[in-house]
Write a structure and sequence with these properties.
By secondary structure, this protein is α+β, with helices and mostly antiparallel strands. The strands form seven sheets. Strands 3, 7, 8, 9, 10, 11, 12, 19 and 22 form a nine-stranded mixed beta sheet that branches. Strands 13, 14, 15, 16, 17 and 18 form a six-stranded mixed beta sheet that branches. A five-stranded mixed beta sheet has the order 26-25-27-28-29, with helices on both faces. The longest helix has 21 residues, at 167-187. Helix 1 crosses helix 13, helix 2 (44-63) crosses helix 6 and helix 2 packs across helix 13. It binds adenosine-5'-triphosphate and magnesium ion (3 copies). Adenosine-5'-triphosphate (ATP) is lined by residues 109, 140, 142, 151-152, 155, 157, 200, 202, 408-411, 443, 445, 447-448. It catalyses: tRNA(Pro) + L-proline + ATP = L-prolyl-tRNA(Pro) + AMP + diphosphate. Belongs to the class-II aminoacyl-tRNA synthetase family. ProS type 1 subfamily. Keywords: Aminoacyl-tRNA synthetase, ATP-binding, Cytoplasm, Ligase, Nucleotide-binding, Protein biosynthesis.
């Protein structure tokens, strides 16, 4: 590629509304441009990186025996009604109607669609196990898109779905996916950690997340320094009870709380710590004049349903007993516990916003962690979390817990029969009996990985890509191009040699000052730079500098290609 006719789109200025370094650098290095909240165009340089990530993912999925397909982004409501998620999924599901007033959604994930495919195409245990994957655009109407492509409303995901005649077979593929995910993140050169996870609105029992460790991560990962134990502390059930844990919230009675206007003041009002989570606190309005708050386990999607059904929310919150919660909302929430607080600040907010005001609570203390607030509340401070978690013994009896921030880049689930039962997906076993399919699903945030990699790989001059993700491997920067015949022909020759050798090379043939070119190549993060100037050329040499090197070095022009390889 030659820069002269290439949409380089680099920027000097630091974009004002970009909060984290990867977002700033993706804009400045000309990787992405914002169209609207959470919607981004991938520019040529960004797309090159994205394609490299996709290719690594594709190769490892193929190696693990998965088969690539592409399913529609637009999905009919009927399938989601069959699984129950048309109602459960809540406002993150972007719904549309066609010209005949039929309901559709834009797929945030594809369990329903793939189950529909497999129940039609697979009839016998002999065709199993099968693992289908796609690398495709997903749409989620995130309440708070932010950090550029890190949390966007349209993003690229690799999602795979496996089907099995038995739980044992599911477990085997789940392990193979775990291995494939580790291979992907290793090849991409990322510092990552697999952790025990909450299965959220996807459902299912066993699940693990893969986190890229970075201070800007939205999740907090607790891990043991003495064993392999690691968990996203959204799932504090895996954590041990500690002496430090306060007793269950004392006065579970009607309370009015002037001054409660943030997660922090809410927590301090409830006299709980903002750390451990196994349950979700849902704040929902029952009728004008009253709010109830319930603590649910696990499935975030349920909050949304219930809150949606409850218009006319007003303060103050009222505390409710478990039995009352069951009466009001029906059973099916798993283990409920009473908790509540007056929270005037949310009283005038829409049900959708309330639905997303979820907090975590621990098994016995209803400890809270605030997430997803429409206003710009800070995330729980890692320092606050640290106080309680760090130094606690491990759940598995080995070592003590440490805490780090993580960015979720992958998630694998054993779904069991959740979807196949609801959607009647069965096969005949070896005795001719009908058995419900066991299912697993496995996601990788392909576009999020690009941002996560930059969080881990940058310096004050720009991006320092891991080799496997760099948009170009080599930058050729000729000094005085078009004025010096010798420089021009040497640059052109090296460019052609690189291309012939299959090296991704960018020839900076712009009429710009050397300083401008150097700054751009460093900002974009090209790992190898070769400068060609009259002086060194006269001595039969080029000047080489690695992106992370302090000093440039001379290399023999005739062996430049060997040097690069
Ligand atoms: P998060 O907890 O960050 O909202 P999730 O648990 O909802 O993610 P999954 O349903 O597990 O996401 O989807 C698989 C992967 O897709 C995630 O691990 C993540 O890397 C990526 N992903 C999810 N939501 C987004 C988004 N809004 N923007 C970019 N990538 C996303
Ligand atoms: Mg999500
Ligand atoms: Mg998650
Ligand atoms: Mg997830």
């Amino acid at each position: 590629m030659r820069t002269r006719h290439y949409l380089l789109a680099t920027q000097k200025e630091t974009p004002a509304d970009a909060e984290i370094v990867s977002h700033r650098l993706m804009l400045r290095a000309g990787l992405i441009r914002k169209l609207s909240a959470g919607l981004y165009t991938w520019l040529p340089t960004g797309l090159r990186v994205l394609r490299k990530v996709e290719q690594v993912v594709r190769e490892e999925m193929d190696r693990a025996g998965a088969q690539e397909v592409v399913m529609p982004v637009v999905q009919p409501a009927e399938l989601w009604q069959e699984s129950g998620r048309w109602v459960q999924y809540g406002p993150e599901l972007l719904r549309i109607k066609d010209r005949h007033e039929r309901d559709f959604c834009l797929g945030p994930t594809h369990e329903e669609v793939v189950t529909e495919l497999v129940r039609n195409e697979v009839n016998s245990y002999r065709q199993l196990p099968i693992n289908l994957y796609q690398i495709q655009t997903k749409v989620r109407d995130e309440i708070r898109p932010r950090f550029g492509v890190m949390r966007s409303r349209e993003f690229i995901m690799k999602d795979a779905y496996s089907f099995h005649a038995s739980q044992a077979s599911l477990e085997e593929t789940y392990r193979a996916m775990h291995v494939a995910y580790c291979a992907v993140f290793e090849r991409l050169g990322l510092a990552f950690r697999p952790v025990v996870a909450d299965s959220g609105s996807i459902g299912g029992s066993t699940s693990q997340e893969f986190h890229v460790l970075a201070d800007s991560g939205e999740d907090a990962i607790a891990f043991s320094d003495g064993s392999d134990y690691a968990a996203n502390i959204e799932m504090a059930e895996a954590l041990p009870p500690t002496a430090a844990r306060p007793a269950p919230t004392a006065a579970l009675e009607e309370v009015a709380t002037p001054g409660v206007d943030s997660i922090a003041s809410l927590c301090s009002h409830l006299a709980v710590d903002a750390t451990r989570t196994v349950k979700t606190l849902v704040v929902a309005g029952e009728e004008p004049g009253s709010l109830v708050a319930l603590v649910l386990r696990g499935d975030h999607s349920l909050n949304t349903v219930k809150a949606e059904k409850l218009p006319g929310v007003a303060s103050p919150l009222r505390l409710v007993e478990e039995a009352e919660v069951r009466d009001t909302f029906g059973a099916g929430f798993g283990s409920l516990g009473p908790v509540g607080v007056a929270l005037p600040v949310i009283a005038d907010r829409s049900a959708a916003v309330l639905a997303d005001f979820s907090c975590g609570a621990n098994r016995d203390g209803y400890h809270l962690v605030g997430v997803n607030w429409e206003r710009d509340l800070p995330l729980p401070r890692i320092e606050d979390l640290r106080e309680v978690v760090e130094g606690d013994p491990s759940p598995d009896g080995k070592g003590v817990l440490q805490l780090k921030r993580g960015i979720e880049v992958g998630h694998i689930f054993q779904l069991g029969t959740k979807y196949s039962e609801a959607m009647d997906a069965t096969v005949l076993d070896e005795h001719g009996r009908s058995v419900t399919l066991h299912m697993g699903c496995y996601g990788i945030g392909v576009s999020r990985i690009v941002a996560a990699a930059i969080e881990q790989n940058h310096d004050d001059r720009g991006i320092t890509w891991p080799a496997a993700m760099a948009p170009f491997e080599v930058a050729i920067v000729p000094l005085n191009m078009h004025k010096s015949e010798a420089v021009t022909s040497a640059a052109e020759a090296l460019y052609e040699h690189c291309r012939a050798a299959g090296i991704d090379v960018l020839l900076d043939d712009r009429d710009e000052r050397p300083g401008v070119k150097f700054a751009d190549m460093e900002l974009i993060g090209i790992p190898h730079r070769i400068v060609i100037g009259d002086k060194s050329l006269a001595e039969g040499e080029f000047e080489y500098k690695g992106r992370k090197d302090d000093e440039a070095q001379r290399i023999d022009r005739d062996h430049a290609l060997d040097f690069l390889r």
